[in-house]
Amino acid sequence: MKQRRKRRKHYNWAEEIAKGNTDKFYHSTDFDIWREKVLTRDKFTCQFFLGKWNDGKHFPEKIKIVKANTAHHIIPIKERPDLALDPDNGVALSFEAHEIIEERHRWTWRKKKKLLTEERW
Prior knowledge:
This protein has helices at about 15-20, 20-25, 30-40, 45-50, 95-100, 105-110, and strands at about 70-75, 90-95. By secondary structure, the chain is mainly alpha-helical.
C-alpha cells in the first residue's frame, strides 16, 4: 500500500479535470484510494485476460491468470469527469492489457530490424 500524506487538499475533481488538470488528478491521494478500491474489488487479477471484461474491440488471445497492477477507467475521465472517482467505472488490468486497450502496444513491442552487416570504421 502506498504511503499517503496526512493532510490533503479537497478538490472538486470534476471541475479540475474539465479544466485539463488530469496529471494533478493522477498524482493525487484521491486517485490512489480509488485505484486501491478497484484493485481489491477485482482481487488484483487482470479482468481482461480472465475474459470477464473487454471493450468490444479487443479480446484476449487466450485465457490466463495475470496479476493486475493498473486500474483503468471504463469511461474516460475526459468524457465524464464526474465518474473519475466512481469504483464502478474502473476495472483492474495488467500493464500489458492496459497497453492493448489503449492501443499503445503496437509501438512498445515492435522488434527492430537487424542490419545485414554491421558497419565498422
